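User: Predict the structure for this protein chain, please.
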Amino acid sequence: MGNFQLPSEGIPGALATFTILLAHEASHIFAANSTGAKLGIPYFVPSLQLGSFGGITRVTSTLRKREDLLKIAAAGPLIGSGVAVLLLLIGLALTPGEGQGITINATAFHDSLLVGALAKVFMGESLKEGATVQVDPLVLWAWTGLLINGINSIPAGELDGGRIAQALWGRKVWSRVNGVSIALLGFSALFSDISLYWVVLIIFLQRGPITPQAEEISSPENPYVVAGISVLLLSLLICLPFPFSFS
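Assistant: Here is the predicted structure, written as structure tokens:
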């Protein structure tokens, strides 16, 4: 308390993470414009752990078909995660100057399969179990943005992942996947405050139903199906732990 320099030191990290969120939300808007859909103003959900859990954007018009929903839902995580991975790679490639790096335990990289694999590729033998490593702050800022995109891609409620699941397989399958996802989040909430936060958020703000489409029978074209499934797989790579030893 009373150290007014600390907030200013957080500005670069906030800007880096906000850049990732901005790319995510802007992609939703561009995709919506291409389909003629109307979106509400996105509002960001605060988080004590990450700063923000991303934005909630309502679809305020009826969509023509499931493919339109898939385009809008998949655009945000694809572009947002792409920007986050790019910044993460830059951060891993940078060598921290004296007094500028952040010292963390190598065990932290077990928290994400994707980040752990990339860290091992870039750090090589210096990343060992129990060791401490210095990384550029951009690594943690980009990782934060990547995690926000990954969590938003979980196939639950009206999250991007939930909308993707409904667009890919229809409402009946979405309702089942949604139930399983919330149940798994509820179980993981016993061990993670972030999961608990998301269960509460989905139940009160994002539980659905998903915006109706005028025609919900026809399936999306294959390129959009690939994009949607890629987002769901990317969410797993981000959120699942890295199971291998760094030895």
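Residues 74 and 228 are 6 Å apart (CA to CA).
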